[in-house]
Amino acid sequence: MKIIDFCVIILLFLITLITYYAANSIVFILIQIFICITICIYTYVLKNNARIDKLTSLYNRKYFDYILSDKLKRLRSRANLALLICDIDNFKLINDTYGHVTGDAVLAELADILKANIRKSDTVYRYGGEEFAIIMPNTNCNEAEVVAMRIKKAVEKHYFKTNVTVTVSVGVAVTDYKVSAVDIVIKADKALYIAKKQKNTVVCLQM
Question: Which residues are CB-contacts of 81 (< 8 A; sequence separation ≥ 6)?
Answer without folding.
Answer: 71, 72, 75, 135, 136, 137, 138, 139, 174, 175, 176, 184
